[in-house]
Amino acid sequence: MLLFALLAGCDVDMHEIEICTYTVQLRYDYNEENTTDENKIVYWVKFIDEYIFDENDKLYHIRRVTDDMCTDYMNSELQLEAGKYSILAVGNGDCSTVWDARTGQLPVVGMTDREDLRMTLENADTFEDGTRGPCGELFHGYRTFTVREEGGATRVRVDMVNAHFQVRFRVTWRNSPVPKRGTYYAVLEDVVSQYRLMPEWLYPAGSFVARQHDTRAHDDYPWSDNRVIHHLVHSQFERGNVIDHSNTTYLNADSEVWGQFVNYRVKNATPLIMKLYFAPDGTRGENDPMVLPREIDLGQYFAHFGYNLAEAGLYNRHCDRRRQDNNESDGRPFGRRLDRRRNLELIYLYKLFY
After folding, report:
1. Residues ≥6 apart with Cβ < 8 Å to 78
2. What is the mean pLDDT of the chain?
3. Most exposed residue of 78, 95, 97, 354, measured as fewest CB within 10 angstroms of its CB?
4. pLDDT, tens digit (0-9, with 9 covering 90-100), for 135-167
5. Rounded Cα–Cα distance for residues 75 and 50 (Å)
6. How is the chain split into domains, by residue range?
7. So what's the architecture of 2-353 in CATH?
8. Coil, strand or helix: which one is 10?
9. Distance (Å, rounded) from C-alpha 346 to C-alpha 258?
């Protein structure tokens, strides 16, 4: 009896041994991009869709994991056969559709290859002018692991990384006529709307230097692994993979218009054209006047002030004009490179455009 417990046992918090009903436990962790030692996963992520692939990179299992309101963690316990596996995880993906790029259909167990998994922003609200409404904060994770035939359950940490770009804006009228009260809406044009879920960049354990992800060099399939490894989703900016976002807002008591966009990640040199409109009757129409005298190119704004939106930087509030080579970032600490609040606040004074 003791022999059986040792062979099929679970080491629970390194204190006791119990009989396992699973062979692998995936522990999802979100440390806010290395800005905290705590696991903040349940504060940000409501559910995770996990796509598990076998050693031949074929889709083996699909499952949704939801948060447990009584705990401060999210774990997934699975009964997998011995072998090598990898997982692609998507958190809060209710505004997106995951699909197979080879077939153009939903993923199919035993058929879909890992390299073909894509995600497209499709399910956000669509307005009468064809633009898409705001979506929620999205998260992405990737890891490889091995399940052994004996020796206890596999335990693997899966680090989630925010996979969204959030920008807040405020338009203030000064030394000019107070605008009319009513409905305003902002439009952000040509926003990336597709991800390739296999990571493009990663921060290896114990390193703060980002490298382009290489499956042969970086995927080591450990038995149990608690290392902190962040993988960054691959943003695919192509002309056919962009949509226009919009957000309805109103004039507040201080004669200001506030709003925000939450969408897929952007890169350096990505064109981001923002326009602000006023809807006199509260309904959007083709003849609605633009509030600002001209459109605003946020891409040029970021470039002018040195914001690094590169693959390895995600959302960098610090002025960093050093360039990257093809395989490595500039080496700045991960935690300092990222905006912990995941937004950039842009303030536009109406008088600047006269």
Report:
1. 22, 23, 24, 25, 26, 52, 61, 63
2. 77
3. 354
4. 788 999 999 999 998 778 899 999 998 888 877
5. 11
6. 2-353
7. Sandwich (2.60)
8. strand
9. 10
